Each structure stands twice: as structure tokens, then as C-alpha cells.
Amino acid sequence: MTTSTVLVVEDNHNNLKLMRAVLEFAGYEVVAATTGEDGVALAVEHPPDLVLMDLQLPGISGSQALRLLRSSPRTRSLTVVAVTASAMKGDRARALDQGFDGYLEKPLDVPSLPAQLREFLGRKETSS
Ligand code: MN
User: Fold this and answer.
1) Peptide bond preceding 47: is omega within 30 degrees of 0, i.e. cis?
2) CA of 84 to the centre of ligand 1 (A)
3) Under DSSP, is residue 37 helix (H, G, I), strand (E, B) or coil?
4) How far apart are CA 112 and CA 114, in angstroms?
5) Gap from CA of 2 to ligand 1 centroid (Å)
6) The model's pTM
7) Centre of ligand 1 from the C-alpha of residue 126, in Å
8) Per-residue pLDDT reduced to its tens digit, 74-83
9) Tell me: the pLDDT tens digits for 81-107?
10) Which of 39, 64, 85, 100 could lock onto 9 through a cystine, CB 3.0 to 4.6 A?
11) Displacement of CA 108 from its chain's centroid (Å)
């Protein structure tokens, strides 16, 4: 079984540290970026199996970064999951409307995170 790579785009140091620890413990290889621009560049260079995209980032937003990923043939079909702290009611629907493949709310539910990621990754495997 090959190791799945997860690209985490997150500007908050503590969140990034937590996500890296949880993902690595669950057996994923983690690549991290702290801006949308860097995240897109990394994804183009080495397309990951899954992208966890914070929506609120310095510079371009997570939604703008998603648009860039969807506009490039190399990264168009990536599974990209929005991660956001805002508990606004319409956020989930809006993220899915924008073309995100899923949505995770912060604070992340650490115990269930590995299972949630397996589900996102499995969805891609069955659709390709
Ligand atoms: Mn942020």
C-alpha cells in the first residue's frame, strides 16, 4: 500500500502543527504551505492525494486558490477539502458550490479526522 500525501494549506501555526501531528500519526505524508500561492505552487509541482485548504489565508483566499487549482489540467481533479473556523450557516453549502469536494469545521474533531480523510480519499479512488 502506498502512502497518501496530504497537502495542508493553513496559515495558523498551531492548527498546522496539530494537523501535521494527527495526519502523520494516521500514516499520511504531509506537505504544508502557509499561503494559498505556495499551496498552489506545491500542488502543481507534486500533485497530492488530498488538499486540506483553510479558507482564510493571507494573500489569496482558499476559494481563490481552489479556482487556480481547478484551472490547471495538472491539478483540476484534485480532491480539495475546505477547512474553516467560521460557523456561519451557509458556509458548507457555499464551499460545496464553489467546487470544494468537502468541508471540515475548525476546531477539527481530532479523533474522527483520520476516518473523515479516508472517506475523502476513498471517494476519489472510486471516481477515477
Ligand atoms: Mn487561516
Assistant:
1) no
2) 8
3) helix
4) 6
5) 30
6) 0.92
7) 31
8) 999 999 999 9
9) 999 876 667 888 889 899 999 999 888
10) 39
11) 13
CA of 54 to the centre of ligand 1 (A): 6
- Number of Cβ atoms within 10 Å of the Cβ of 13: 9
CB 90 within 8 A of CB 98: no
Query: Are the C-beta atoms of residues 69 and 75 closer than 8 Å to each other?
Result: yes
Residue 79: which of 66, 61, 60 has the closest Cα? Answer: 66
Candidates 31, 26, 71; CA nearest to 49 is 31
Can you list the pairs that 14-21 forms with residues at least 24 positions away whose Cβ atoms lie under 8 Å? 15/54, 15/106, 15/108, 18/108, 18/110, 19/52, 19/108
Written as nine digits, the cell of 104 is 471540515
